[in-house]
Write a structure and sequence with these properties.
The chain is mainly α. It is about 60% helix and about 5% strand. Among the domains are: about 45 residues, no CATH class; about 50 residues.
């Protein structure tokens, strides 16, 4: 029975649902987990590996990755606010790491960070005055 299921799964790339009732509970759980992994793999098949910092992204992919509209992406390229690449002189690409750097610029400090900076500055001023 298992070899039939296995052969059918390889032939159609999907397990035969009608045979699930013949499987033990443990085998059904494994099959369900495999189906879920297959779905996740299919969803992820066209997405770049986020751990690879120098993936090249198109304007549409950069827009999706950053959350900015495509028109904003074109705007920052026309004003040279972010680095980009034009290998054929027309099509625009970005390195993921460059987009990450662009997204992380102009950090606005939290209130806690401002207080810590103020305390450090005050401490430095007091220690210079005492010396």
């Amino acid at each position: 029975m298992h070899s039939i299921l296995k052969e059918h799964a390889y032939a159609s790339n999907k397990p035969d649902i009608t045979m699930v009732n013949d499987l033990t509970k443990g085998e059904q759980q494994i099959l369900a987990a495999l189906k879920e992994l297959h779905q996740l793999f299919q969803l992820n098949i066209n997405v770049s590996n986020p751990n690879k910092k120098d993936d090249m992204l198109s304007v549409a992919q950069a827009s999706e990755y950053s959350g900015f509209s495509k028109s904003f992406i074109y705007k920052i390229t026309s004003s040279n606010e972010a680095p980009f690449y034009k290998p054929n002189g027309k099509t625009i690409f970005f390195k993921r790491s460059d987009i990450d750097e662009f997204l992380c610029r102009k950090k606005v400090p939290s209130n806690q960070e401002l207080r810590m900076d103020a305390n450090n500055s005050l401490s430095n001023t007091i220690s210079k005055t005492i010396k």
